[in-house]
Write a structure and sequence with these properties.
globular
Length: 89
């Protein structure tokens, strides 16, 4: 079992998760966004993170959290207080 398979086992299709998403156009902007875990339509044996109409492979390279509270705690650890920041939920 590789790292990605082990990570995939933490989630099931239909799970709602929260991710810290960095704006690809403005690197110093990050938000917490709700996303869904779904079956990958191109590779049905894999799951994907569905965010902004795009499928992303679930991996340890993504900041995925099972609860909003976990995402908030991580955001504040790495980016500071959310007060005044753009929350997208």
């Amino acid at each position: 079992m590789d790292v990605h398979e082990a990570y995939d086992q933490q989630y099931e299709p239909g799970d709602i998760v929260y991710v810290i998403y960095r704006n690809p156009h403005i690197q110093n902007v990050a938000n917490i966004q709700e996303a869904a875990i779904v079956q990958n339509p191109d590779h049905e044996e894999e799951i994907s993170l569905f965010l902004y109409e795009t499928y992303y492979p679930v991996s340890d390279e993504l900041a995925i959290f099972k609860t909003k509270e976990e995402a908030l705690e991580a955001y504040e650890t790495y980016f500071g207080d959310l007060e005044g920041a753009n929350e997208l939920w």
